[in-house]
Amino acid sequence: MSSMHTQALELAIFADPDLELWGVLAIDQRASLAVGGLHAGILEPMPVDVAVDAEAWMLTGAGCELQVTPTPAGSATTDAAAIEPCQVLGTLVIGGATRKLQGIGTRGALALPQDGGSLRLFGSWFPAGQELGLLATRRRGASSGEGDEISVTARGEEQPLVIDPRLSTTYNGAGEPVRVGIELWLGASEDDEDGLRGRRVAGRAGGSSVAIGALRAYAFDCVTRGEPGPGVYVLASPRSEPANT
Predict the structure, then answer these.
(1) pTM of the model
(2) What digits encode the pLDDT tens for the residues 82-124?
(3) pLDDT tens for each residue of 211-245
């Protein structure tokens, strides 16, 4: 199996369900932020300045004063160190109006694939308090599904361990994700099969998207156990994707 050449990237995805907004922040050589409505069409990213104070990312720019800080994970896979739940608080001018943003999200320091591999970051957030962040990476030439390395962080669950997470994505002819499915088990240990509790999240693209460098990000309308909530899907990969992965 060939090695994956990578480029460091700090990334945060988030949503404010009350304002029906979603957003993505990408930081590499420079920082770009895009925020808009869940069904707002194509967004334009804007440059922002980023200062790091302990674990907080302080964002400032034209009409932007935001702070991104981690929140404790309640459940996780054993290898979820690359991503963590977060909150995004502050003010942002959107459409000429100043909005007070209270976003919930997922952030991480990620390795952007450079040689034909792929990276997918997905987050979904629900009113009852369930939050899910999933990172899937695939090496060049790896098979669909079985070739994925998946990490998950979750909040709002009683069980501490996320077991056997799976991600499936349906793409359109342009290589854009249009449907997503997440399946995982939650439990105290992998050996306690009787105590495992399943969770599934299904999502459909909401019609809003943005391109930031090599990344493409999409707003999603999601549902879990009958409850709707917003989601964000970020993809970094070659344009040629199979119909379902």
Answers:
(1) 0.90
(2) 899 999 999 999 989 999 999 999 999 888 776 767 899 999 9
(3) 998 899 999 999 999 999 999 999 986 544 444 55
Handedness of CA 228, 67, 80, 77 (dihedral sign): negative
E strand residue ranges, the chain = 6-16, 21-27, 31-37, 46-53, 56-61, 64-70, 75-76, 83-94, 97-113, 118-125, 131-138, 148-155, 161-171, 177-187, 197-212, 215-224, 227-236
Answer whether 83's CB lies under 8 Å from 155's CB.
no
Cβ atoms 230, 222 nearer than 8 A: yes
Query: How many angstroms separate the CA atoms of 230 and 243, rounded?
Result: 24
Distance CA 20, CA 156 (A): 21
Distance between CA atoms of 220 and 216, rounded to whole angstroms? 13
227-236 and 21-27 strand pairing: unpaired
The whole-angstrom separation of Cα 189 and Cα 70 is 25
